[in-house]
Design a protein that fits this description.
Helix content is 82%, strand content 0%. It is an all-alpha fold. It has one domain. 25% of the residues are buried.
Length: 87
């Protein structure tokens, strides 16, 4: 069940990054950065990181270039802790 959730949230986050990049190119209304960060915090950090690199989006923003990898590191550490605590 967790795998399905992570697949979905990462897909949604990747799409959000694409939509924001597309909107930026068109000069249209953008997705707030808070929403992009919340999507990453909700488990979509891999999708956020992929979106940053695939679409070359938010790569000049220090808050994203540092924040998203930190979020991913925290999520991996939390997952490893939970996994290891079962034994």
């Amino acid at each position: 069940m967790l795998e399905i959730y992570l697949l979905l949230i990462n897909t949604v986050t990747l799409i959000l990054f694409w939509l924001d990049k597309h909107s930026a190119r068109l000069g249209a209304r953008r997705i707030p950065e808070k929403k992009l960060f919340w999507a990453a915090l909700a488990g979509g950090s891999i999708g956020a990181l992929a979106g940053m690199h695939l679409f070359r989006h938010k790569t000049l923003r220090r808050s994203f270039t540092l924040g998203v990898p930190l979020i991913l590191s925290g999520q991996v550490a939390a997952g490893l802790y939970l996994y290891m605590s079962k034994f």
